[in-house]
């Protein structure tokens, strides 16, 4: 199936080469184009040898050579990719727990190895055909991010409800033998894959270090919209404490053996348990920050690295909006933040998540309306509002399908989804998570 070009930017290199919208891209450097991943991998070459067919003309390909010019756009736009869908029936699937009125396309059950390679999305490996495993190895799509949950086939079947769930270790062997590195996760579910099953999984995966580079342990995410779904629950504070202590203990043992922590506990577990946030050395290279592992530590480090001398802005007041779970922890840091921002009075607001309902309390799942309802009664002219960066997608759209300009218009004051108005940039190369 050929890839049709939907738009050619006027004045671009593609336009200069005579390519027009509607043309179909057949091959790049003689290699047949299968999908958007091939485009991503091959269109970055300095010299492009493209084989195309004109719109409404079939079987008559023509060749175009383009020498890429620095700072100049190639100018090609292609259709949105078709996403590989998930074939599992996980009892904790987030898509099954969505309320009405959420962001467009949020209800897509994606389980696509291409997005795992490009963006770090976690996949289960249960929907891949043999040729796709071969393609992953051939194109060196490394690292990939795998939701393992359990290495015991019976336990993993309970987590995924898929007849192919028990293949996971065979498939992991295949990928590792092909030179593919893996990051993995365990979504911990009370009474299903914790306890001995979790310990077995962590140490079983550690046998393949450094091919398997890390394991993150994150708590199951449940919303208040579970009518007709299996009866699951979240962890209590005491149970979360045992998980945190166990994972930290396993990590210390593995660090002695492997030289790396290997297994990391998610911030959400640490906050739920009421435990101190680990130091920077615990997270090694912050391999799974986007999975909620080490974001709080990076924020704490940014706060501690700032000084009043660095502060340049002079705002009347800044409101920091966060979720119920992180509120108490952030409150303890407010005095620290205030010392470093002498020109601005800093206050915190805790927003209840009415979009997803309880037990959802994390800041990253707040909707724009949750933020508006919480902050609007307090803000005045001259104020600013800081909101969690994780609450928006890459296009700046909230989970309830609002945009930042919409929220700003309703709020009546400037809104920022970063700490930049308060704190100088962190002096590390790591990405900085919000709260």
Report on the structure:
This protein is an alpha/beta fold. The chain has 13 helices and 16 strands. The strands form 4 sheets. Strands 1, 3, 4, 5 and 6 form a 5-stranded antiparallel sheet that branches. A hairpin with an 8-residue loop joins strand 5 (47-53) and strand 6. The two termini are 44 Å apart. The model is unreliable at 428-435 (pLDDT under 50).
Mean pLDDT: 92
Order of helices and strands: EEHEEHEEEHEHEHHEHEHEHHEHEHEHE
| Count of helical stretches | 13
Shape: globular
Topology:
Layout: E1 3-4, E2 7-8, H1 13-16, E3 24-28, E4 31-32, H2 36-42, E5 47-53, E6 62-67, E7 76-77, H3 113-119, E8 122-123, H4 130-138, E9 144-147, H5 153-160, H6 168-177, E10 182-188, H7 196-206, E11 212-219, H8 237-258, E12 263-265, H9 267-273, H10 295-305, E13 317-323, H11 327-340, E14 345-351, H12 368-375, E15 383-386, H13 404-411, E16 415-416
Parallel strand pairs: 8-9, 9-10, 10-11, 11-12, 13-14, 13-15, 15-16
Antiparallel strand pairs: 1-3, 2-7, 3-4, 3-5, 5-6
Helix pairs in contact: 7-8, 8-9, 12-13
